[in-house]
Structure formats: C-alpha cells, structure tokens
Amino acid sequence: MEIPSKYNATSVENKWYDYWMQHNYFHSTPDEREPYTIVIPPPNVTGILHMGHMLNNTIQDVLIRRARLLGKNACWVPGTDHASIATEAKVVAKLKADGIDKNDLSREEFLEHAWEWTEEYGGVILEQLKKLGCSCDWDRTKFTMDDDMSEAVIKVFVDLYNKGLIYRGYRMVNWDPEAQTTLSDEEVIHVEKQGLLYYLEYKVEGSDQKLTIATTRPETIFGDTAICINPNDERFAHLKGKKAIVPICGRVIPIIEDDYVDVEFGTGCLKVTPAHDENDKVLGDKHNLEVVDIFNDDASLNSYGMHYEGQDRFLVRKGIVKELEDAGILVKTENHINKVGTSERTKAVIEPRLSDQWFLKMEDLAKPAIDAVLKSGDVKLFPKKFENTYRHWMENIRDWNISRQLLWGQQIPAYFYGDGKEDFVVAESIEKAVELARTASNNEQLTADDITQDSDALDTWFSSWLWPMSVFDGIRNPENEEIKYYYPTNDLVTGPDILFFWVARMIIAGYEYKDEKPFENVYLTGLVRDKQRRKMSKSLGNSPDALKLIEEYTADGVRVGLLLSSAAGNDLMFDEALCQQGRGFGNKIWNAFQLTNLWEVADIEQPNSSKIAIEWYEAKFQSVLIEIEDHFSKYRLSDALMSIYKLIYDDFCGWMLEMVKPAYQQPIDRTTYEKVMSIFEDNLKIVHPFMPFLTEDIWQYIKERSPEDALIIAKWPEAKPINETLISEFEFASEVISGIRNIRKQKNIAFKDAIGFSVVNNEHVANTFDEVISKLGNLESFEYVTEAVEGALTYRVKSNEYFIPMEGSIDVEAEIKKLTEELTYTEGFLKSVQKKLSNERFVAGAPEQVVASEKKKEADALAKIETIQASLASLK
Fold first, then answer.
1. Which of 201, 367, 590, 800 has its CA 20 to 30 A from that of 647?
2. What does pTM read for this prediction?
3. With a cut of 50, which residues of the chain have pLDDT below it?
4. DSSP assignment letter at 311
5. Residues spanned by the domain of 277
6. How far apart are CA 591 and CA 593, in angstroms?
7. CB 544 within 8 A of CB 576
8. Do 582 and 553 form a contact (C-beta atoms < 8 A)?
9. Contacts of 209 (CB under 8 A, 6+ apart)
C-alpha cells in the first residue's frame, strides 16, 4: 500500500468518518457486554457549533471511544432540544421578514411554519459535530419534539398533576417582555447595574403635609396602591391612618404600617406596587390592597399609564422624571447600584408580573436528589467543589414555573370546560379529557367542541429533564429492554451553568420515575474564554469559527488543543496556538510513522542496544498507562492527554526511535522492527480517543486490516508488570547522553565524528544502557576509569564524572581561558547570592518563595563551579 509523504487531513477525516459510519461502529444494541452510556446535552435545534460545544463534545467523544477500546458496549445518544424561546423567536423573525404577523396565525398555522423552519435550519449542529469526529449513535438521534418524546412529557405532566404535585396558581412570575413569556427563577440572571434612586414627594390628603419616598422605578407610580411605614418609626407617627395622593395620576391611597419596611433605606417610606414587585405583593395580600397592573405584554404602559399609554417603560421613565421635575415633585436623585433581573435567553430586563401559571411543587421531589449527591454519593460531581453550589440551590429550591406563553413546545394538557378558567381537567388526550369533563361537570352531553385546551406550552426544561429516560422510551414503556440495559447512564458531560437547570432536575426525575439515579458521574467543564479571560461570545467577536479552526488545524489538532488545558471545572483560556500545538503533535506522530516506513527490514541479529531500548520503552509505556488510567478515573482528561503527549513526543519519538534507528543506509533487524510496530500500535490505541482520524489512518497503513480489525474497535493495551529499575536506569542514562550532546554542540563536534568517553562510576550505575549511550553519543570507546582523565572536557551526573578527550580537536589554552572567565563570573554571582542569604533581615522579611529561589540559585552556582573546576583540572 502506497503511503503518501504528506498527511492530508481533509481527505483523511472524510474517508475515515465515512468508513466508520459505513461499518456501523457507532451503533449500539443491547448484548452481553457491559454497557457504557452517555447522552448528549441536547444543543438548541437553532444552534451552530461554538467553542463550548467543541470542548464538551470532544470530551464525550474521548470517553466513548475509550469505552469501545475497553470492550464495552458504548452508546452515545445524540439529539437536539426544541428550545422554545430561541426557536420561536427565530420563526417569528422569519415570518416578519416575509411580511407575516405571528398574531394573525392560528396555532396550527404557526406550528406549520415552526416545523418547516426546524426541518430546513435545525440540526445543523449535529452535522457539524461529525466534522469534529464525534462518534454518536446517529441511528438514535432524538429531538425533544418528536412524537414519542412529547408523549412522554405529557404523560409525566398528567402523572404529577394526579399526584397533587402540579397546580395552577395566580402568582408573581418573571415576565420576559421580549419573548412575551414567563421564565423560571433559574432563567433570570441578576446583573449589577448602576442606576438612580429617585426621591419623590407625595401629598398627604387633606393637609399641606408631604412625605418623600425613594424609588428606582418612577414609572411604576401608576401602580401604587399604598404607602407603607414602619410602625416603630417615630418620624412618621403623624401619618398613621392617613392617606396619600399619588403624583400625576392623583389616586388616593392608604398609608399602612408594617415592620417589613427598612427604616434605614431611602426615606423610610415605601411605595407599594403589588402588581410589580414580589415583596409588595406579599404586603398587598396582607393588607388587602388593590392590585393595579400598568403594563402590556411588551412592557409598554397600558391605559393606567394615562398619557404615557403605549410607550416603552424605559422611555416612560425618562418622560416621567422630567414631568415630576418640572412639577417640583422630584426632590433629588442619587446614584444607586441595583441588581437587575435579565432574561438568560433574550437579555431583556425582566418584569415581575402577576399571572395564572402552572407550577410544580419541588421541595419533596428534590429530597432524593439531594441525598444522591450530598449523602450517599450515588451521583458524583467532578470537580467536587460544585457540591456546595448544588447544595445551595437544592436546599433553597422553589416551586418550578413550568408554563410558557409560547406556541412552540408541548401544549399543556389542561382542558377548560366552564365559563372561565376555574373548571378544568388534565388528561393525555382530548378524548380522555371529554370523559373527565363530563364526570366533573355532571354533564354527559359535553363534547370536544365544549372544551378548550390551555394555550400555554411547557417549559423546554420540562422535556429535557426526562432526557436520559425518554431517549430509551423509559417513560412510555418503563420495562422495555433498552431502558433496562442502558439506564442508568454512566457519565454526563456538561457545563456548571446548567447544574440546576438540567442536571439537578434530571436527577429529580430519575428518582421519581425509575427510583434510580440517571447517571453515575457528572463531569463539569469550564467555560471557554479568550486570552483576556473574557467569555467567548458572538457579541464580543472573540469566538473563532469552529469549522474554520478544524479546516486550518485539523479536527485532531483542535481536539488536542482544546483538551491540553481544560481541567474539569476550570475555565479554558483558549488560544489558537494550542490547536497549532495539537496539529504539530499529529505531524510528529505521522513523521515517526514515515521514518519506520523508510527502514529496510532484514533477517539479521538484533543489536543489544535495540533490545534494551524496547524493554525500557515497554516498561515506560506500562508506567504511563497506569498514570492515564488514574487520570481517567478522576476525569482529568487534560492530564491524561499530557501524559500521552510526553510519552509519545519525548520517549517514543525523541528517544526510542533514535535508539533503534539503523545506521545510515543500513537495514533494521526484523525482531526490532516488528516490536517497534507493535509498540507503535499500542501508542495509537491510547492516542485514538483524542486523535481518532490520524490514528486510524496510520493503523490502517501499518498493515492490511479487515473491518473487524479497525482501530476504533481494537483492544485497549493490557496492564503488565513494570520494570521500575529499567525506567530509573534510563533516566540516568538520558542525562549522560544529554551531556555528550551538549559538549558536541558547544565544541561544534559533528555527530559523524566518533569520540572517546570515560566514566568515573562513583554512583555504581549498572552498565545496562552503555551500548545505547555509545550509539546515541557515537562513541569510539567507552571505558570505566578510577580517576580523572587529563586533557579532557568533563561533566557530572550526580557524583559520576564523565570525560571526553579532546586530543587536539580544540585549542586547550583558549578553552582554559574561557572556563576561567566563566568560573570567575560564577564565583562572583555566588558571593552576591550568599551575601543576601547571610542577611538575617532579608531571610526573615522576604516571602518564602523568594528565599527558596535564592537558595536554589546558590545550589546551582555551587554545582556549576564544581563542574568548571573539574573541567579545568582535566585540561591542565
């Protein structure tokens, strides 16, 4: 088979991905093997590949490919999330561009457009993942709006409702005026912003008295229904039982008393707007206050806003401040830092709003999930530090607002049959709903035309919290073969930002519906940031095009670049240089293969230097294999990759191949060659999860293989006893060789010129690697002596002294002069360091690391002086 001189990543990547797909290596069905299962965190169907996806899915692919090599039945389920808010926004934007108003469409018509859009643009990200090399079981691809997935969601809603865990309530919710839907508390990000505190004067009815209140939102005065004072605040005792007049709108409102009011904040008087603040709503309920909602769905003011009706809330703020100022009602303003709730999806400022919504009671449901992570350890978080975050969220859990005012999503299976919204039934189908409604209303004449389904959709997370079960049809058919085989899954790889949104809720659902954890381990990746530590985003323009990176640096190179510095839970400072390093690593492996391919193989005797080199590398490989296994067990994939990188780059390419390489134009013995290629294959196996394309390509070039012998399904190397002595002896020998190379470099002695070599073996080092040292140093002689050799250059490794006779190849006088100057300089440097260290004030006052650094300088200088003195002695 002809091997190309250059590695063409594009053609190689397409070739082997097609080959893997053609031979169905990614597909899994239950069998007698141990299953290893991961489910993809479903990206939004609207999404395209970004750096976070790249990191997350590379990690999953590494885990799944390694599981295959370990002989497990590896199953990686891919899929996408319907992303209610994001997708509906995209569809609405497209309709608008086509001159269509969403409000002019029926639900069915809108959904037709949504499905059309999804089929045309959705799922792009899954195709992009293939470019990265992701070995998902594409036959199992799921979408949270698939019929079977939706059926599972509705089934769960009905079940939880029948258990009394889902209820409908008129509650204060988070309203996103851009998406025009409610959000759960977890979908609101509280952003610290610089704002103003406005001090406004309210007249006291029937007197000339005035009171001053402080507010951050003057536009909400139209919704004021009371002024509240603290009953213990003597400053306002004269206001008890009186009424105040709201500026501009002139509404007369009571002055109430409640110790909720903080006498230290603002003026000590609080305006109460029950429709637009959760705490105000509590006060309103307690004091039976009127509730006045002043906003439309888009956060413009309604008719309560008088002459501001129809204007956006922030425009109204500017206008009303000027009006209040002109009327002498605005007393002053002060700078004020405020935490403003913003929508995670649209970035719009959230409006607290009273609304009829569906809620899921969480307190009891959460208990098994709390125990699983924090007590029994059935579910383990990596890194462990996130347990504290998990504890905080779960122990302070609130009921989950699961309804959304959207059309795209599973429609809530509640059916109203009375005149208002009080009479309803919950059922999996309209037929069942009619039955229930007839019974509830005591009216056997009711038909489907007499009932109306709730128009709201369920929160997207209400479908994705079932993901590890629903992808195996475990909700609809809880005893089916696949759910019993694949569940619980093994590892979940995701970001800490959705630890509560998704991870905790999946654990809750798992215990509720399978009485079991959904996964064993949760690997929490960090965020991908740029070199300036900024989070990568389109708006900042600091996020590289993922596919262009693959095109430039190869898929393998990008995978290595991402993983070289992405320890679990720690943010990754992304730099394209990392991808360049990854591509360089690939080139190194390819060139090593090219080198072995150039060797002529002959049936000749194996040199002892090659025999010992192979024995050493096999021992080193086994040592690193244990390291790798340990790193994998702790989800330290970056460390595992670095161990592999050093093993192959330094030990295999840098040392072993050099040790066994035949002399120029000479053949290599067959025994060595076959051993080297066997070692090369083991190297490819451990690199394969990280660099799947390059490794499969070389694997297939090494020899003709059948599909049953492809690398993707090869066997992970077996652990064997380690010869630690050999590893230790080589570490010493490598320093000896480096010393020879340094002298050759310093004295410009070409490698082709053989040199003599003598050693005073004070360390009693074994002679195991003497032939290797001779070969790599090109030594014409190698002898053990008992005393220094005159007229030679020398260096030390520990207490061993090594001598290379110069025999006229250098100017001895010039060399003595150079070494003498170097000795004088080093002795002067040593004195300056020792002076510092003899200064008690310095040693006592300087930071510990500074003192340690100076002590190291002293030790290095002393060692250098000893070496120079030995060299001078040998030359004189």
1. 800
2. 0.85
3. none
4. S
5. 181-351
6. 5
7. yes
8. yes
9. 203, 238, 239
